Amino acid sequence: MFLHHFILFATIIITKSQGYGIFSNILDSANTPIKIIEADISLIEEKVFGSSSNLAQFSVQASKPTLHLYYETLCSGCIILDSTQFKKVVSLLHQYVDIHTFPYGGARTRKHSDGTVEVTCQHGPKECYGNKLHACALDIIANATEALLFNACMMPLKSNDESADKCGQEMNIEVDSIKKCANSKKGLDLLVHYGEESKKIVFHYVPYVLLNGKEWRGQDLFSDTCGAFQNPPKPCHS
Ligand SMILES: *[C@@H]1O[C@H](CO)[C@@H](O)[C@H](O)[C@H]1NC(C)=O
């Protein structure tokens, strides 16, 4: 047990010092089994966003399958997937799967010469605002699973302020800071960040799902995620 922790600790130091580079490495080398490093993504993200990152929180298993969702808030296929199949995986398998979402999709980021940054979304400014609400929820809601479920709740409701209010009420989540974030530079910064992360891989449609680093185009995300385990956890058997 002690040795195990020591190895994880050592890995954290390495991955932290390499920052985001490691993230693209994982995605580029989808077939390479660098399991321990994969498990550290969440830690790196926390560090970059400056939210609470401490070693005591770090209790993930080294061999978790990874699930990445690239989406935008107003694409109908994204709405369907996120609020049904993806939500089911989050609800039942969040303890067992390393899940990351990227609310940016097919948006574009332009950096102007005066230093300002502009993001244009496929479905217009309302979608950019929705993407920002999602990005802010991921940043602000301390429990990552709750954040994913909050976003899945907003999806079929257009991911606007009203949806945030409704889902916040249902889930007992304070949404004022999330809305405030979405209306501030912080929201734009987060959206730009998710754009940079999304550009690290190549996809031509959304929703785009990577299951263990491989493109998923199946029918049943839950059973396929269960299929990614050597020893599927309990929820996979019921
Ligand atoms: C996070 O939220 C999930 C879903 O509501 C819950 O099952 C889990 O216990 C929470 N984790 C913590 C550390 O509170």
UniProtKB/TrEMBL annotation:
- What's a Pfam family this protein contains? GILT
Q: What is its main location?
A: secreted
Query: In which compartments does the protein localize?
Result: Secreted
What are the entry keywords? Glycoprotein, Secreted, Signal
> Is Iron there in the keyword field?
no
PANTHER family assigned to the protein according to its UniProt record, in alphabetical order: GAMMA-INTERFERON INDUCIBLE LYSOSOMAL THIOL REDUCTASE GILT, GAMMA-INTERFERON-INDUCIBLE LYSOSOMAL THIOL REDUCTASE
Q: What is this protein called?
A: Gamma-interferon-inducible lysosomal thiol reductase
- The source organism is Loxostege sticticalis
